[in-house]
Amino acid sequence: MSLLQCLTVATALILLQTLSLTVSSTVLSRADRITRLPGQPRVGFQQYSGYVNIDDKKQRALFYYLAEAETKPISKPLVLWLNGGPGCSSLGVGAFSENGPFRPKGSILVKNQHSWNQEANMLYLETPVGVGFSYATESSSYEGVNDKITAKDNLVFLQKWFLKFPQYLNRSLFITGESYAGHYVPQLAQLMIQYNKKHNLFNLKGIAIGNPVMEFSTDFNSRAEYFWSHGLISDLTYKMFTSYCNYSRYVSEYYRGTVSSMCTKVMSQVSIETSRFVDKYDVTLDVCIPSVLSQSKVVNPQPQQMGETVDVCVEDETVNYLNRRDVQKALHARLVGTRKWAVCSNVLDYEVLDVEVPTINIVGSLVKARVPVLVYSGDQDSVIPLTGSRTLVKRLAEELGLRTTGPYRVWFAGQQVGGWTQVYGNILAFATVRGAAHEVPFSQPARALVLFKAFLGGRPLPDEF
After folding, report:
1. Closest to 268 (Cα-Cα) out of 260, 256, 258, 279
2. Per-residue pLDDT reduced to its tens digit, 384-416
3. Which region is the signal sequence (predicted)?
């Protein structure tokens, strides 16, 4: 997008902010309204989905799905959700498998009793182009995509999305996501703050990232200790995994096509001991996790010769549902350049080495800008273990001179311990979610909703039943 185009969008948005908007705010978005999804139970809230063209010249368009709040949507904040990968769908994973209002079950949709749209207007974005229903008419647009391009595209998406939904212009805005969204979310928030210096468009109130990739070596190398402490590897293999070839070295070599014989030996032994019958995204789970939860190409590379794959259930409800023609029609979605909707893109060529670029420093800049940050971790995830995230948050707090607001303590969901939490300076928080996997809202939906509600309200997590 050129500078002139950016100014045009900004001017239009400023005009919308200053106008009395006597015309109903639904006019611009009416074409995207979902009448009813196939098999959907009756609900009282509105849904919208469709495209925002982010590049007229190259015809690149991002697909979104908006589930407005179940009650009083006008008074509820707007929350943008981004899934990771890079290259995996926020619609298929976030909306239809984690915290959206429905989950597919056979030919119908069932109500998610712990949907996050109980507390907010939930906006799910399939990003970057080439993911899910998002597309470009030129296949070259799928090549060389990186964090910088993705962040800029996401910013342009929001600018233009507000033209469709001007009623959300001054609404409190939160950005949330998980896994590789540890890159997406802070990078987008940083651009929003920079943009606000001239145009004051985004009413950003906070970010929350779950089991996020924020610092390559710390996050990845915490895996060895997690495996060992949970009995998944032997003492000898733990020593090899920490002394001769740690996980960050292996991933770095793997994506450069130069895996050393030592790393091959170490990783083979790790693979044998951890077993392909244990899901790395939830080490305690004794049943398969649907492929919609295998949302990571970068954080858990799976070389064929290692014999290690994420267990996949025979039936994948979400994939089946979103590939139905009647569903795609109801969503105003279309497939361009591919015959089948997929959870994670098979056409996107992402710059995977961007994973080595830390974002914890960007998180620090957000805190300095007085943007509240929550980092939360499902404690059964060995892919991005809680120990790495906790270490990074504590280190950041020390660098910023933030004191602990209260002691490290348990928090409650219902009459059970929901996890543990630590808050720094009333603006930076870390929390674990007990019994949760890599995808926290999927594995512990009730506890995730308690966490989410507290985050939106800027309140401490419950310290009693």
Report:
1. 260
2. 999 999 999 999 999 999 999 988 999 999 999
3. 1-24
**Tokens, residue 389:** 């995230």
- For residues 326 and 309, membership in a common domain is answered with no
Measured distance CA(201)–CA(169) in Å, rounded:
7
What is the spatial distance between Cα 353 and Cα 235, in angstroms, rounded to a whole number?
31
Residue 206: partners with Cβ closer than 8 Å, 6 or more residues away: 174, 175, 371, 372, 373, 374, 455, 456, 458
81 is written with which tokens? 């959700």
pLDDT digits (tens, 9 = 90+) for 233-276: 999 999 999 999 999 999 999 999 999 999 999 999 999 999 87
Helix (H) or strand (E) holding 125: strand 121-126
Q: Do residue 294 and residue 435 come from a single domain?
A: no
Please identify every residue annotated as catalytic: 179, 381, 438
DSSP per position, 325-385: HHHHHHTT---SS-SS--SB-SS-EE-GGGGGS--HHHHHHHHHTT--EEEEEETT-SSS-
Q: Give yes or no for a contact between 400 and 364, defined as CB atoms under 8 angstroms apart.
A: yes
Q: How far apart are CA 381 and CA 226, in angstroms?
A: 9
Report how many domains make up the chain: 3
If asked whether residues 61 and 179 sit together in one domain, one would say yes
| Measured distance CA(464)–CA(441) in Å, rounded | 22
Range of the domain at 195: 3-214+319-354
DSSP one-letter code for 171: S
Distance CA(209)–CA(99), nearest Å, equals 14
Picking from 356, 421, 413, the residue whose alpha carbon sits closest to that of residue 390 is 421
Strand, coil or helix: 119 = coil
Q: Do 201 and 245 belong to one domain?
A: no
Average pLDDT by stretches of 10, the chain with 465 residues: 54 50 56 96 97 92 98 97 94 95 94 97 97 94 96 97 95 97 98 95 97 97 96 97 96 95 96 87 67 54 42 63 97 93 93 96 98 97 96 98 94 96 97 95 96 97 90
Q: Say if residues 87 and 94 touch (Cβ distance below 8 Å).
A: no
Give the torsion sign (CA, 196, 199, 205, 209). negative
Give CA–CA dist 143/44, Å, rounded: 42
**At a CB cut-off of 8 Å and minimum separation 6, what does 212 contact?**
177, 178, 179, 180, 181, 182, 185, 219, 375, 384, 389
Strand, helix or coil at 179? coil
Domain annotation covers residue 224: yes
